[in-house]
Design goal:
This protein is α/β, with parallel strands linked by helices. The protein contains eight helices and six strands. The chain has a six-stranded mixed beta sheet, with helices on both faces.
Length: about 190
């Protein structure tokens, strides 16, 4: 893959930023120019978190214009809807089927949408939903949900598997390496 614009989104504590860092480092390792931008927000309190990753031969800005992202990697359904305006109509939308009530819903000031996946499918051509939390738990820990999502994404980016493994091994703590590799493999095998 010569160039791509990716938006990662989720809630604090899901590993959204680590996932975007892994992709950026993989693209850099493949010899591409990479730019990355992120917003932590209320990450430690379960708030919205997102990151833009852009790679190609030459990339001038880290920020993806609305409607231009090739990929939206969402770790939670409502966050997928929140950041969907960044995705092009032909973008590949990868969504974890987890629903986390934001503070507005918990406080009674808002309602969680009835069918976020259905709303996405009405607008976009390529929406893939996966229970990444169940796959992460199958790998041994719900904390490796981000590695499941990375494995799923890796099927659509033409970087060598060895490069993914090298970067993943470098970015996760040594004691969690095996479980992250297993989670990545489960995500990569999804939809095959």
């Amino acid at each position: 893959m010569e160039a791509a614009d990716l938006v990662f989104c989720g809630v604090g504590g899901q590993g959204v930023l680590l996932a975007s860092e892994v992709v950026a480092e993989v693209a850099l390792g493949a010899g591409l120019d990479v730019k990355k931008s992120e917003v932590h927000g209320m990450a430690q309190r379960g708030g919205s978190v997102f990151s833009h990753v852009r790679f190609g031969r030459v990339v001038y800005s880290p920020v993806i214009p609305l409607g231009k992202a090739n990929f939206l990697v969402a770790f939670e359904e409502l966050e997928a809807l929140r950041y969907a305006p960044y995705a092009s109509l032909r973008a590949r939308i990868l969504v974890n089927t987890l629903k986390v009530n934001p503070i507005t819903v918990l406080s009674g000031q808002g309602k969680y949408p009835q069918d976020p996946l259905g709303m996405l499918r009405e607008r976009f051509f390529h929406v893939e939903a996966v229970d990444a939390l169940a796959l992460a738990e199958g790998a041994g820990s719900p904390k490796v949900l981000n590695s499941v999502m990375l494995g799923l994404l890796s099927r659509y980016l033409s970087f060598p598997l060895e490069l993914w493994m090298e970067v993943l091994a470098k970015r996760v703590p040594f004691k969690a390496r095996d479980i992250n590799v297993k989670a990545f493999g489960l995500g990569r095998a999804t939809f095959s």
